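Step 1: inspect the first sequence and its tokens.
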Amino acid sequence: MSRLTVPKTYKLFIGGAFPRSESGRTFEIVSAKGDFLANAAQASRKDARDAVKAARAAVPGWSGATAYNRGQVLYRIAELLEGRRGQFIDEIQRGENVSRTSAEKQVDEAIDRWVWYAGWADKYTQVSGNANPVSGPFFNLSVPEPTGVVAVVAPQDSSLLGLVSVVAPALVTGNTVVVVASEQFPLSAISLAEVLATSDVPAGVVNILTGMPGEIAPWLASHADVNALDLAGAEHLDWIGLQISAADTLKRVLAPQNDVAPNLDRITAFTETKTVWHTKSML
């Protein structure tokens, strides 16, 4: 006896929950061959505001966690991705019309990239911070701190690896993230959200929106409670206009990049430097 097909409706990921878009809108996800794969929620301006609110509320807890603990949490994500490796491979193969070998390569690189960034959580401070020479009986230390809420437009041509490449480095330092996933290949983004929801990542640390980056990005760029903007996947948008909008609230902005390979610069891109002075003991 044959069973009925049960199509899945992929929802947003905001504040650790999976709401539908407040607008009620959805869009069809189709394969490269035009076959129906699933329905996904089409995020609205209100959804973006809700995601920023959730991200802001999560900043104190996540940034206040020890670097060692953040590294453990990020590594746990890699463990869960490894356990669901087959699912991600199938989704990428169907959605992007690539060979199984190519899909396996993308998933394996994404998992390895999580591990790479997890390892930096308790080490980047030693590399990007320093003790400064001063004239006088003082210690002068420069220490990197998280920027706060980072809004991200994920690479549009890579469903999982591109997403991981922009989300993971922002989390390392204690930032929280609102990310607009690939419009064409959103399946892996919501599956990643399911991984995050069952991991040790606190609610609101990562918020994932699906839909049209061109519709959502301007509201994130101009939002006063967003501290930084990563336009990695915004090369097809009016990203100069997004930079101008971001300037009104003094956001740090990372321009579109073709290369989002793992590197320390992506970790430190969204940090601020705090300088501390302390007198030396005169005893």
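Step 2: inspect the second sequence and its tokens, then contrast the two.
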Amino acid sequence: MDSLIPFTTSGSLVDCVDRKMMVVLRDGRKLIGVLRSYDQFANLVLEDTVERIYHADVFAERWQGLYLIRGENVVLLGEIDLDQEDDVPLRQVEWNTLEPYHKEDIAAKKHREEYKANVLYEQRGFCKEGGEGDGY
């Protein structure tokens, strides 16, 4: 009966080692690299890592190399399908070209979140979250 229970601990990452993965972090960054190692806290080691940013129908990448990620900062971890990776209808541009637009997108999102939190606080009595919203 126990074998039917899904394995939901960090041990379930064993099948992901040596595969190309995308990791979305709590601060919104998206990293793509080959998962080389992990531990019981889901701390990850990515090799040949790039940071990717998006805006509209374009993207840019910046080389990061070997990357150690603390497990509590991981929001999402997913495998990149190598067969379909090149079929994505996005155009790659230089990082310096796209970075100002990406920063504008981040600032606009932050403004929307602050406005929403303020409305919830003033009209509905919800407390305002502090920092990154981790609720500690």
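Step 3: confirm your contrast with the notes below.
Residues 2-92 form a domain with the SH3 type barrels. fold (CATH 2.30.30.100). The CA atoms of residues 43 and 71 lie 4 Å apart.
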